[in-house]
Amino acid sequence: MQDVARLAGVSLGTVSHALNKPEKVSERSLQKVRTAVEQLGFVPNSAARSLAAGSSTTVGLVLTDIDNSLFVDIARGAEDEARKSGHALLLANSDIDLGRQESYLDIFDEARVAGILFTPMNASLEGVDRVRRHGRRIVLVNYAGGRQDCCAVLSDEEYGGYLAARHLIGLGRRRLLFAGGPEEFYAIKERRNGALRAVTEAGNVTMEVIPSRRLKSDEGRKIAAAVADRPAGQMPDGILSPSDRIAAGVIHELMARGLQVPDDVAVIGYDNNHFTTEAAISMSTVSQDGHLMGAEAMAILLDEIRNPDHEHRVLTLKPQLVLRESTLGPNGRPRPEEDRRAGMAPANPAPL
């Protein structure tokens, strides 16, 4: 700024006003500053300006996995809401890495962003406590953890798992497999708990659990390969996965081994990723409204930033079944007797 002031022949204060409050500067001085800025290629330091003003218009968002289109939808919803109030959104992808997740929290904290939207993977929230001690506002997305000092917007993961298992049970499937997912992740545990609730209610259904280290399609192929050669009475006839990508791998491997989906094994995923209608067999799944989740979380965060009397709250959104060929078959509907066993009408399949 000193170089700009020297070239323009004005004071540092005039340069500062020209950059931040141009209405306070005469047109002649404003033009001098603009000319000097252009000649020098000067780029204002937004972080320094925010520090001097005691405020920022930048918000950070730490996502779990950008490969999962649920988190893309969350980001779009958050950005759309932020733009309404002139805030900019910075994205960070932890790529299902707890160390990277913590690192990005610290980076946003050091950048003195106005607030942070955070999609944590497990119950370890030390990073949240750390950035909150520095005065950073933070809203948890898709996780609450029983905290009273943070707002949260989440999907009812337990209910989503319950819906998926109940759907398979309603189709007459009695040997279920919960396929994949790191067991320490909050969302995975909740989805599994919901599935177990449906199994317990049914009374004559079993559910095996095979975890995986990652939420990738190759993990699904490994799990399917591990069970595909079992005798008929030991082979699962219904597979639910806490991840669409794992479910896609399961379907691919089962079909490669000559098994029919859903005749031999019905498969349902989770998250309603964008690719679920594009495979050879469209995938039944549990849908979460990521765009709404992101928009609501951003609205709550901005209210906390502006309002000193803001009260913390938790907003829970209900997931929905989206039923397609991987459980219903090519006709898009189960047989009438299966409808009655399910005690529910199947949802309309998404367009293929």
From TrEMBL:
Q: Where is the HTH lacI-type domain?
A: 1-53
Q: Does the UniProt entry include the keyword Aminoacyl-tRNA synthetase?
A: no
Q: Which InterPro entries match?
A: HTH_LacI, LacI/GalR-like_sensor, Lambda_DNA-bd_dom_sf, Peripla_BP_I
| Recorded GO MF terms | DNA-binding transcription factor activity; transcription cis-regulatory region binding
What UniProt keywords are attached to this protein's entry?
DNA-binding, Transcription, Transcription regulation
Give the residue ranges for region: Disordered. 325-352
Which Pfam families does UniProt cross-reference here?
Answer: LacI, Peripla_BP_3
Q: Does the keyword Transcription apply?
A: yes
List the CDD domains.
Answer: HTH_LacI (cd01392), PBP1_LacI_sugar_binding-like (cd06267)
Q: Which PANTHER family match?
A: HTH-TYPE TRANSCRIPTIONAL REGULATOR GALS (PTHR30146:SF109), LACI-RELATED TRANSCRIPTIONAL REPRESSOR (PTHR30146)
Q: What is this protein called?
A: LacI family transcriptional regulator
